[in-house]
Records
---
Amino acid sequence: MAKSKQIIVRIKGFKFPNIGIGINPETGEKIQVKRALPGQLVEIIAKKGKGRILNVQERAANEVSPLCPNVNNCGGCTFQTLTYEDELVLKKQMVLDLLDKAGIELPESGDCIEIRPAPNIYGYRNKMEFSFGDECRDGLLALGLRAPGSYYEVCDGALCNICHEDFNKIVACTREFFRERAASFYHRTRKIGHLRHLVIRRGEYTGDILVNLVTTEGLDVSGFAEALLGIGLEGHIRGIIHTLNSSVADIVRPDHVGLLYGDDFFYDNCLGLKFKIYPFSFFQTNTKGAESLYTTVSEFAGAGTGDAGDIFDLYCGTGTIAQILSNRARKVYGIEIVESAVIAARENAELNAIENCEFIAGDVNRETLELLTQQGASPDVIVVDPPRDGVHPKSIEPIISFGAKKIIYVSCKPTSLVRDLEVFLERGYKLTELRMHDMFPRSYHVETVALLQKV
């Protein structure tokens, strides 16, 4: 059995997701170190080609002083110590390296490959999911983002700089409210305690705020809504809900949802359209970044009103892309497996007086796509915006069988994108444009839009 060893390594490279690459000075072999940046000299515990950072002995030459006081303890951000320009370079190269390794031919013109920066580097997130825990074993109740590799320790969420200051004020108020009442967080192994998560959503353009307190059963939350409503905020609280979750899994899953105040939804705008968003609706977490992303999708789809013919929006969620493309298409068909999202998509289309969008509840598979064929749908453009794991292998062939002139693949995980692109390219499509969008500054995540055209 291989033994772990303490060594010092200079980080030479970087790859997705968030992994620094160095050379083991004793064996000459590559070693992967999570959360290490190129140029750093790190002391690590190494085993089987992987390393865990003990401390950073030398910072990289391009590192700067971070603005976040939790930079060394928080599991949320990755690039708080890099200039934003260097962060963009790293993200772009990370995607290109994956494409190169897979042997995927890039567009001939270098102008067709770019990364677009986020409109805002700080305060950009419209949704944050904070966890209850403690900052040290048996310490005071804490509320924030989890420390790396920890189930219970969290960093102070009232200091987070990637969300609006309203979030921080709500976190601080919630933490003090439950500290005063000696409430405890839910301990998964002991199965004791109540407090689990606090999910806050805020409309970028409307200032609407929706607060979702997630607990196990049996916690007295009387007075909580009144406490939040007494905070001086730039935005305004539209609704406060209480979600009960008895699952052992560390996820926000609703067994029961109760309303403590106001509405169970909020509104926000995107590219001039209005969207009604429910507690568990998918809506891009960077609204202004999403506008840039969706503008790219719109450009790739077609130039003018109705020019794009029929469009399929697969994995459409609450229909954001479908509605944005509606003025470029004869008709847009959206498919989404989450029925509540389909209901919200129809509601939002009505809200925006859009009549040429049809939303269907179902999985993106042969059976559902055949229903569209029976309706006479013939797509010129197919937009694919799958979850992180990408398109299911059994779904790719039915998508290709439509023979659409264009397939626009929107990806939030480069490794899934590369895997699926290989199939599309083998089956008669060519990659003609590739545009990355930084939707999540200070993290390693990057959104990629690939335009595939039928050869």
---
Amino acid sequence: MFDSGVGGLTVLHAVMVRLPHEDVVYVGDTGRFPYGPRTRDELVGYARELTAVLVERGAKVVVVACNSATAAALPTLQRECPVPVLGVVTPEARAAVQATRNRRVGVLATEATVASGRYVDAIHDLDAGVEVVQVACPGLAEAIQGGEPYSERTLELAQATCAPLREAGVDTVVLGCTHYPLIRHMLQRELGADVQTIAAAEELAGEVAATLARKGWERDRGHRGGCAFVATGDPEAFREEGTRFLQLPIGAVEHLDVTG
């Protein structure tokens, strides 16, 4: 599993709960965080590099626990990778289409994810009649990962990004970045109690479980799975930030050198 930083640990937590017998390697690309302002070509290159690292370490399934990387690179990775590659966009799109009552769905995401149009395509593949309102949230993932997710600055960003969705009358909002669930209550307050928020974690964990079962690759359920953590930036900073996101202790963190 890989993410631009520690946001994907929200997905890892769901996978660990759903599949406690599986071993996981998590790579946080904190040295190149954030992914939101990156170009598509940059994101494809990063995703290829990190996927190769996971495959070399024996991954049975690669999970792209990052919305920007999923939006930019998932089809490329699925064509090129020798093992199944799963991303966050499709599970969230499916959940949003099933949840909406008025067929107006909002998407809060990074600039790269919004620019890709992948959520619009994925939702319309399931129901072409759903209206999709996308709002880019520059700086929000950085504010959340920066150590003060509940600061006045984060609240100001949340208010600014949620306002257009309230005005559009959406009844369902996709939290299109794995960092955003950490401030879910803050976002919910700005969106209103009647708006349902959708995040990737549980849906994606279900897809991982189904893929392993379908392939016959499940570990013995008597095995207690472990998790190895790798960061391209400062390992100690990853450990401190990651513990808050994962809500479990994180021990040693390996440093990984990447191309830049």
